[in-house]
Specification:
With 235 residues, the protein is α/β, with parallel strands linked by helices. It has a single domain, classed as 2-Layer Sandwich (Nucleotidyltransferase, domain 5). The protein contains 10 helices and 5 strands.
C-alpha cells in the first residue's frame, strides 16, 4: 500500500523567503558544458549516518568552488543539518559530528537551500559521486520537494581514466591523495574531504587539458565510457 500512503504524503511547507530562494535556484541558467574547464565547478562531500545512501540520513554537506585552475578558498560552504535523533556512536567516531552537534544543526530546509544557492547550477564533482548525489537528492526531495538539476562528475571514474599510471595502485581517495602529496587535515570531515578532493580535481583537469579534453561535456563522455568499460570491476 505504499502508493496509497504516497498520495497522502504532504508536500514540504516553505516560508516565503525559502520559496523565493528555491525559485531563484530553479531559474538559474544551466552551465554551458561545452565551455572550457576553467569555468566554475563545485566539489562536494557529505557525511551520513551510514554507508547506504538509499537508507541512511544526510548529516552534513560541504562544497568548495574550483575555477580558473584554482581552488577558491574564499568560496566554500559547510552545514550540519539538524537531526531528529543522532546517529549511533560508531558512526560518530567516523565523522566526529557529535550527538549534541547533530541535534543543534541547521534547520534542514534552510541548510539545503543555502547549499543550492552556493552551488547554483554549476557542475558538481565528488569522489564516488553517486553516494553524495543520492543522499542530497533524497534530502532535498523530502525537505524541499525537488531534486537539484546539476550534472555530476565522479573523480573515482575520471582519475583512473586519465591518470592511468597511478591508477594501478590507487583504490580510494586516500590512495589518490597520498600519491599526489595532497594533505587531508581531517579525514571524514566533509569540508576537509571536499578540499582534498578539489585538489585532486586540479590534477585531473591538468591531465585532461594535456590530452585536449577541454570541456565538461568531454569529461562527462569520458566518465560514461570508463564506467561502461569497467562495469564489472569494483571501483
Amino acid at each position: 500500500m505504499r502508493w496509497l500512503n504516497s498520495l497522502w504524503r504532504r508536500r514540504p511547507v516553505l516560508d516565503g523567503a525559502q520559496a523565493a530562494a528555491l525559485a531563484a535556484y530553479r531559474s538559474c541558467r544551466l552551465p554551458n558544458l561545452h565551455a572550457p574547464l576553467a569555468e566554475r565547478a563545485v566539489v562536494v562531500d557529505v557525511e551520513a549516518s551510514g554507508l547506504n545512501p538509499f537508507q541512511d540520513r544526510l548529516i552534513s554537506v560541504a562544497g568548495i568552488s574550483v575555477a580558473g585552475g584554482l581552488v577558491r578558498l574564499n568560496e566554500c560552504f559547510e552545514a550540519v543539518l539538524r537531526q531528529n535523533q543522532p546517529s549511533d556512536d560508531r558512526n560518530i567516531l567516523v565523522h566526529g559530528i557529535g550527538g549534541s552537534e547533530q541535534l543543534a544543526g541547521r534547520e534542514p530546509a534552510a541548510g539545503l537551500i543555502d547549499f543550492l544557492e552556493f552551488a547554483g547550477k554549476a557542475p558538481l564533482v565528488a569522489f564516488h559521486a553517486d553516494f553524495d548525489r543520492i543522499l542530497i537528492e533524497r534530502a532535498t526531495s523530502a525537505v524541499l520537494g525537488m531534486k537539484p538539476g546539476n550534472v555530476w562528475l565522479d573523480l573515482a571514474l575520471l582519475a583512473p581514466a586519465l591518470l592511468t599510471g597511478p591508477a594501478r595502485t590507487a583504490r580510494n581517495l586516500d590512495d589518490w591523495t597520498r600519491i599526489f602529496g595532497i594533505e587531508n587535515y581531517s579525514r571524514h570531515n566533509a569540508a576537509s574531504d571536499a578540499l582534498a578532493t578539489a585538489q585532486l580535481l586540479l590534477v585531473v583537469l591538468a591531465e585532461a587539458n594535456a590530452r585536449s579534453l577541454g570541456t565538461w561535456a568531454q569529461l562527462m563522455s569520458l566518465q560514461r565510457d570508463y564506467r561502461w568499460l569497467n562495469s564489472g570491476a569494483r571501483l
